[in-house]
Design goal:
heterodimer, A: mainly alpha, 78% helix, 0% strand, globular, B: mainly alpha, 66% helix
């Protein structure tokens, strides 16, 4: 067992290494950090441009393979993912931004998943009744709307409400804002800023998980072991809760592991629309700002998240599924 | 349950199962599927909306009073009126005409990506399952590799350089397809693994049919239901991915127009000039919702174990 896990892990690490290397080659050849220096007014001295590019290992006059080697050596020897073309080290920036993303997505994804699983399991027991049709269509609708459209509509509604009531009930710019001096103002302020993005995340997650959970639950409800449980005299509620729900939660667990891990970069729309300076926003700005090292680091982080999700999913299955746990 | 399995598993008319009605009803499999699909009202409405949107996208520009590139010097950034039904942009262009043009591009992107990525998935998945061994290992490994690479970032990097001619959107189609086939390929492979052990596949093999022919003529048709569902859902995925990329300024680049670029422009000014946003937003939601509803309906109609078939016929 241990050897199997170790081999899987090694395989993952090799995959990640190749993926990140490919991303580096692509980013380094497609993005053009020199253009940032060329548009400066008054124009900079070509010599000094070359020097600052060279010092950051971004000059396109150096062969690609050589740049790649320097970049790799820095990471392996001192965990230095390089500098952005006009800013500081990438590693520090990412360390700060991960926390921002974490604050943004935690509540939304957890609450959304719980609501989604509950709705999915409940509607499955009421198949083709009105409530089932309502929630199925509702979740289909939410998943068909681009995330940034939901967020924009909410934002408009919120600002209309603010204007109508004359109070600043909803905040939608950044993490914190101006706050009063009363006790707990810091917390209230943060919560005010989190309400809208969290609501969007809850909607999307709930819609996604209710669909998955409903399908899985329907399969479980139709299976032989639930009928057996009923036949041997278990009450319907108990048969559903203990036998159907529990079995159908195993695959949901794997989905959950994956979505949580990928949310770090998946909440990009929320971050940009509500001005949270997290990882998703970073990934986008690095590309528009021709930041080779930043973009590759963001891609590596996203890759690590996916692999983390895969490993988490394996663990989740082991915890939830007694057959895996016992063998 | 078993009855329902039989009706789709064997290609016998359902009437043979119920001798009393044998004379009155003899349905082919196709007729059966159509009936099962028509029973799902949401899916039927979705299909009608898609057809309507396609027709509007094709003939609409000839009927609309304005062309998308005509600059109306008497109406810059005007709200909807009789003159311009959906209002005008800052450049004095008609929103309705622009939305039609965006819809055209989005439909093209959606359907092309769907066909391409399902095609790639079918080929990779079935060949991996059929040949096994090293070929399978390499295919699975490449699939894993592409899953680890954050596709969104890579597509953004490759399309961020601005417009590269009028056919730059074809590159986007290619990229969306190239990064969208992996999960389906895994599912198709596992399905093919069981189909490949069927007798008729062995028979085809021993009759001396080439591998390519065996796969395309005998294996793939038997998982066609999955392929159809997958392609349908991919249309929605591609349209949403395009709008997402365009929202960040990647994806389709101006002067080319898609629903994504229109939405991205509209979303930035939605508080002051909502008409720039409403039209494209409603169009995208209507389109993707219909595609997803049709996908759901197809799944119910094609899946023999689905309960939505109602009672047998």
């Amino acid at each position: 067992m241990g050897r199997y896990v170790a081999r899987r892990l090694l395989n993952y690490v090799i995959l990640l290494f190749i993926a990140v290397s490919l991303t580096y080659f692509l980013a380094a050849s497609q993005l053009n950090p020199r253009s940032l220096y060329l548009i400066v007014n008054p124009p900079l001295d070509p010599q000094s441009i070359e020097e600052s590019l060279l010092s950051r290992n971004l000059s396109d006059n150096v062969p690609l393979l050589e740049r790649y080697w320097i970049w790799l050596k820095d990471i392996l020897t001192s965990w230095d993912w390089g500098d952005s073309p006009k800013g500081g080290p990438v590693t520090e920036e990412i360390g700060r931004r991960i926390l921002v993303s974490l604050r943004l997505i935690t509540a939304g994804s957890l609450i959304g998943t719980v609501i989604g699983v509950t709705i999915g399991a409940w509607t499955a027991t009421r198949q083709y009744k009105f409530s089932d049709r309502f929630f199925t269509l509702g979740s289909l609708f939410i998943l068909s709307v681009p995330a940034f459209v939901i967020a924009s509509v909410l934002q408009v509604t919120a600002s209309k409400t603010n204007n109508a009531t004359g109070l600043r009930l909803f905040e939608f710019v950044g993490e914190t804002g101006s706050r009063g001096g009363y006790f707990g103002a810091v917390l209230v302020d943060r919560i005010q800023h989190l309400v809208l993005p969290t609501f969007v995340l809850i909607l999307i997650n709930a819609a996604f998980f209710s669909r998955i959970q409903r399908n899985l639950m329907l399969d479980a409800l139709g299976s032989d072991f639930v009928r057996t449980a009923r036949a041997k005299g278990l009450r319907q509620s108990r048969a559903v809760m203990k036998h159907a729900l529990r079995t159908s939660l195993v695959p949901t667990g794997t989905y959950f592991a994956f979505t949580v891990a990928t949310l770090f970069t998946g909440a990009t729309f929320m971050e940009i629309i509500f001005s949270f300076h997290g990882m998703g926003e970073y990934a986008v700005t690095t590309i528009t700002q021709q930041d080779v090292n930043g973009a590759v680091a963001a891609a590596a982080f996203a890759g690590i998240c996916v692999l983390g999700g895969a490993i988490l999913a394996d663990i989740m299955v082991a915890v939830l599924d007694p057959r895996v746990r016992l063998s | 349950m078993t009855e329902k399995l039989l009706e789709t598993a064997t290609e016998r008319p359902i009437a043979e199962l119920t001798p009393t009605e044998a004379e009155s009803k003899r349905l082919t499999r196709r007729q059966l599927l159509v009936r099962r699909f028509l029973r799902n009202k949401t899916a039927v409405v979705g299909l009608l909306i898609i057809v309507a949107l396609i027709i509007i996208a094709i003939i609409g520009p000839y009927l609309a009073p304005w062309t998308y590139d005509y600059v109306d010097r008497r109406a810059y950034l005007k709200p909807p009126s009789n003159r311009h039904v959906w209002g005008t942009t800052q450049g004095g262009r008609d929103m309705f005409a622009l939305t039609l043009r965006g819809l055209r591009k989005s439909l093209l992107i959606g359907f092309l990506v769907a066909i391409l990525s399902t095609g790639i998935a079918a080929l990779v998945g079935s060949f991996a399952a059929y040949f096994g061994g090293w070929w399978e290992r390499v295919a699975l490994w490449v699939t894993d590799l592409l899953l680890v690479i954050p596709a969104f970032l890579l597509i953004a990097v490759m399309t961020s350089g601005g417009s590269k001619g009028p056919n730059a959107w074809l590159l986007l189609v290619f990229l969306l397809a190239a990064f969208g086939w992996m999960l389906s390929a895994r599912v198709i492979r596992s399905l093919c693994l069981s189909v490949k052990e069927r007798d008729y596949v062995h028979a085809a093999k021993f009759m001396g049919l080439s591998a390519g022919r065996t796969i395309t003529r005998h294996i793939l048709p038997n998982i066609s239901s999955l392929l159809i569902i997958d392609a349908t859902l991919n249309v929605g995925y591609a349209i949403l991915a395009e709008t997402g990329l365009s929202f960040f300024g990647f994806g389709v680049q101006s002067p080319d127009t898609s629903l994504g670029t229109l939405l991205a422009d509209g979303a930035r000014q939605v508080n002051s000039f909502p008409w720039l946003f409403t039209g494209p937003a409603v169009t995208v939601v209507l389109l993707v919702l219909s595609v997803n509803a049709v996908g759901d309906g197809l799944r119910d109609a094609l899946d023999p174990s689905s309960a939505s078939g109602g009672t047998a016929r």
